[in-house]
Amino acid sequence: MNPIRAIRGMNDILPDEALRWREVEETAARLLASYGYGEVRLPLVEQTDLFRRSIGEVTDIVEKEMYSFEDRHGDSLSLRPEGTAGCVRAAIQQNLLASPCRLWYGGPMFRYERPQKGRQRQFHQIGAEAFGYAAPDIDAELIALSARLWRQLGIDDAVRLELNSIGAPEARARYREALVSYLAQHRDALDADSQRRLESNPLRILDSKDAGTQAVLDGAPALADYLDAEAAADFERLCSLLDAAGIAFVHNPRLVRGLDYYNKTVFEWVTGALGAQGTVCAGGRYDGLVAQLGGKATPGIGFAMGLERLVLLREALGVAPAVTAPDLYVVAVGDAAERVALAETERLRDALPTARIHRHAGGGSFKSQLKKADRSGAPLALVWGDDEVAAGEVVLKPLRGGEQRRLPLGELAAALAETMTQGH
RNA sequence: GUGGCCGUAGCUCACCAGGUAGAGCACCGGAUUGUGGCUCCGGAGGUAGGGGGUUCGAGACCCCUCGGCCACCCCA
Questions:
Q1: Which residues of A are annotated as a binding site for L-histidine?
Q2: pLDDT of amino acid A188
């Protein structure tokens, strides 16, 4: 009988790696709170319609990547493929939009894609959304927040900011027409995927990886020339705010977004260190989405970062935290010693609440227990045998050099406190 | 959904004209009746991802399938 395996693309995160995740998550949570973002915890499942109406009917996500199913009442539900839609839904439903508000969330997202480096079917994002701010200063602040996060995570040298404006929907529609009519004349020079996108999603052709297609695009009309006046002015303002804040960026006029709800500002933080899936964080403005989902017209902007990719990047750069050894390893041989050791270890935990104490479990000889103590990486061991128990003492044994000594139980906590502070 | 490479012990990998599996590390035990790290000795651990085919004989060859990695696509 074959053992049951995890679902393809849905990974277990084991202790050593969970430690790295926790550091990223806690750093982000702390920073978001410091910028005034409040955490929201949102359902993993929403009505399928929420995603159809926000992300867009003709996107790959909605067409072929959602985990959708009918519940027992016959309603179509979907595992969330991204976080913004649910956050907007919650903001409308819970009446959070009366005045401007800043929210953040984290958790798993689901897309039925072929797994590869930096891409899995259950992946994890932390996202931030700001509602009710129409002016581009919030765009700059949100980007500054992310830039600060990269510094705190030690990856700022490995990521670059790409920025663009895709304008108002009407301007984009005019541009799309111009682009399609130009590209249609060069249809044969486009790669097969781009030919297909000519009908489905022509703007996505702009960020095609195909060299021939990119060559054709060199002569194409530029999105920047079609921007509405407001978007152009806001973009200029955003660039100057970023300059003033000392945040470097590159204007990538071919940067577009895969989700339909974006307008004006779009941006991505990308790295070359992760292979093909180099986008570590992406976002943009979505001024029409709240109204589109039935709320009072409210501008919005947000971004989402991919936890897997951030963790991978930190590992690649060697800035991930090392696994920490325990401070103390407790060894006890024999029933009486085990009884004393368990009780005394509990008292030690009272006296030294932050100490990482690994009490050996499961018995075994002195030899085997000390071998485990050594392997654990702990600098110190506590050893109990029949002799120590009879004498009311315990052996404090340095594992990285130094002589072991026996001391009365009453002196143990103080001796340990001293030894451990010396070690730090 | 498409393509390339790859699945042998817990891990990293060997063997291979096709003749019914081996090393290092890790694990367990001993040398050392209660003391780790070094050394030596021993032990356990594999239906060679799964299924089918060719063959006297398949881990090696063929097919299917599952899984992994990377890329396309998509995107965090």
A1: 82-84, 111, 125, 129, 257, 261-262
A2: 87
Task: Enumerate the nucleotides of strand B whose atoms come under 7 Å of any protein CB.
Answer: 1-3, 26-30, 32, 34-37, 50, 66-76
Q: Same structural domain for residues A292 and A414? A: no
- Give residue-wise pLDDT tens across range A328-353: 999 999 999 999 999 999 999 999 99
Residue nearest to nucleotide B74 (CA to C1'): A60
CA of A84 to C1' of B60 (A): 52
- Residue A273: closest CA among A160, A126, A153, A162: A160
Q: How many domains does chain A have?
A: 2
Q: What is the pLDDT of residues A4-44, one digit of tens each?
A: 788 889 988 888 889 999 999 999 999 999 999 999 999 99
Together in a domain, A269 and A413: no
Q: A23 with A44, same domain?
A: yes
In this structure, which long-range contacts are made by residues A350-355, counting pairs with CB atoms below 8 Å and at least 24 apart in sequence? A351/A413, A351/A417, A352/A413, A352/A416, A352/A417, A352/A420, A355/A327, A355/A328, A355/A416, A355/A420
ipTM (interface predicted TM): 0.86
A366-424: pLDDT as tens digits: 999 999 999 999 999 999 999 999 999 999 999 988 889 999 999 999 999 888 776 54
Q: Which domain holds residue A258?
A: 15-168+228-317
